[in-house]
Amino acid sequence: YLQLGRDKTYQMLKSGELPCARIGRTYRIQRRALDDWLARRAAESLTS
Predict the structure, then answer these.
(1) In CA terms, which of 12, 14, 34, 48 is 20 to 30 Å from 42?
(2) Rounded to an integer, what distance in angstroms lies between the CA atom of residue 2 and that of residue 17?
């Protein structure tokens, strides 16, 4: 879905770059929040 490696994904989750909620030791990402994040990133890359 993101076409990122596991290490890079966890790094982005820990830094807060990806939207998530942490429940215990597990990261949870809402599909809607992720889709919105991807759309914003796409819009930013088009305007840059």
Answers:
(1) 14
(2) 13
Q: Residues in the chain, how many?
A: 48
Q: Which two tokens stand for residue 21?
A: 């909620």
* Cα–Cα distance, 8 to 22 (Å, whole number): 17
pTM of the model: 0.77
Phi, psi of 21 (to 5 degrees): -125, 140
Half-sphere exposure of 32 (CA within 13 A, CB side): 0
Whether 6 has a pLDDT exceeding 90, the answer reads yes
Domain ranges of the chain: 6-40
DSSP 48: -
